[in-house]
Automatic annotation (TrEMBL):
Tree of life domain: Bacteria
Region (Disordered): 42-74
Pfam family, one: SLT
Domain Transglycosylase SLT: 121-192
Family: Belongs to the virb1 family.
Biased composition (Acidic residues): 42-51
Protein name: Transglycosylase SLT domain-containing protein
InterPro entries, sorted: Lysozyme-like_dom_sf, Transglycosylase_SLT_dom_1
Amino acid sequence: MIALLLCASPTMIWAELPKQPAPVVEVDNVVQTAATSLSFPDEVEAEDEPPALETAPFTTTLRPPARPGNLPRTRWQHMRGHSLWTRAAISALKSHGKPLVDMVPADVAEWCPAYPTASDSQRRAFWVGFMSALAKHESTYRSWAVGGGGRWYGLLQILPGTARGYKCNVGSGDALKNGAANLSCAVRIMATTVPRDGVIAGNGRRGVGADWGPMRSASKRADMSRWLRRQSYCKPLNATRPRSRP
């Protein structure tokens, strides 16, 4: 047997041997190549901070789209950017607009029967809905609108001088054409006049009516209040509860 093995050809011997694993390849160069293939935009210097995600030289679709959340129903929700407007108004009502939410206007039953016993979130929903109803008559929901011969600006047609007088964060016409800023300023104004007068409108010239002309029109007030009373945040609990079956 030993003699036969010795006589066997080298080719046969190598064929019978088990295969050896492939040699390990150095990966330093591969890793270095991959790392250096990523580059920042030309205007970003090596010593600068990395660019923000929205300006980085790649994009991703892994992040799920933002959900609208539980936003209250408004009259402007057919307009582009309405979610931002609503969120900005809610944020303002949580901060400098809190006096507006904390009080119960004497005439609120005409506008929102559920308001006196409503939670803070429901009260904020009412005021956002109220501003959207007012925007119908002020600007027809156009954040870029300019009226009064160039005097009034934005969703709720605010005079720049009025904005400055109430110490809003915006005081120019162009700035008031930003929907979110316009509403934040409107909340600041209403949070002063409504607690001062104790009413939303009264006879049309108090509360919100002190600064917004549509409130002085009985037909426009009726249109606004009629729409608001139909919203879930303004209906009393017994009106929204399902009827019991016979």
